[in-house]
Amino acid sequence: MIDQEKIQKAVRMILEGIGEDPDREGLQDTPARVAKMYGEVFSGLHCDPCDHLETCFYEEKHDEMVLIKDISIYSMCEHHLLPFYGKAHVAYIPNPEKITGLSKLVRVVETLSRRPQLQERLTTQIADTIVEKLDAKGVVVVIEAEHLCMTIRGVKKPGSTTVTSAVRGICRTNHLTRAEAFSLLKGTHR
Ligand SMILES: Nc1nc2c(ncn2[C@@H]2O[C@H](COP(=O)(O)OP(=O)(O)OP(=O)(O)O)[C@@H](O)[C@H]2O)c(=O)[nH]1
Ligand SMILES: [Zn+2]
C-alpha cells in the first residue's frame, strides 16, 4: 500500500533540498497534499487490471472489431516522475464468448496508467491484458502522448508527440484486419 507518512517526510526533505522553508504558511500542508496526490496518481499499482474484465456478456456473440478512440490518459514517466498525457485508442476483436463492457476496457487503461510508467510498457500491458483475460482474437492499442520531461526540461520540445502501438493476434498476422483497425483508428474507413 501507499505509505503516506513516508511520502510526507520525503516531500519535506525535497522542499528543504531546494532551499525552501517547509514551515512557512503556504508550504505547511504541502507534504500531506502531495502524499494524497501520489496516492491518487499511483493508485493503479495496487490494482489488478484483469479484475475489471470479469464482466462479460456471454450471449452476444459479436466477433467483429470494437474500437474505443480518444481515451484521455494521464500517466507518470518513471524516469522523472513527470506526467505524460494524451490519447489511447483500443481496438479488439472479441472472442464471441467473452465480450466485455466498453467502460471496462477504459478501466484497464486507467489502472495501468496510474503507475510509474514507460509509454511503451503501458501500451504493451494494455494489449496483453485484453488478450490474456478475454482471449481476444486480436488487439490494437495506440497511444499518442506528450511527455512533460521533454517539454518543461531537458530537450524542451513542447508539442512533440510520441506514438506507440502494440498489435496482437490476427491484427498482427492478417494484414487486412490490421489495415481495418488502423483505418478505423484514423477515421478513414468511410
Ligand atoms: N523509451 C522511453 N523513454 C522515455 C519515456 N519517458 C521518458 N523517457 C526518456 O528517458 C530517458 C532518460 O534518460 P537519462 O539520460 O537517464 O535522463 P536525463 O539526463 O534526464 O535525460 P534527458 O531527458 O535527455 O535530459 C530520456 O531520454 C527520456 O526522454 C518513455 O515513456 N519511453
Ligand atoms: Zn521523463
UniProtKB/TrEMBL annotation:
It is an enzyme of class 3 (hydrolase). Zn(2+) binds at residues 77, 80, 149. Pathway: Cofactor biosynthesis; 7,8-dihydroneopterin triphosphate biosynthesis; 7,8-dihydroneopterin triphosphate from GTP: step 1/1. Residues 7-185 form the GTP cyclohydrolase I domain. It comes from the Bacteria. Belongs to the GTP cyclohydrolase I family. NCBIfam families: folE, PRK09347.1-2, PRK09347.1-3. This is GTP cyclohydrolase 1. It comes from Dethiobacter alkaliphilus AHT 1.
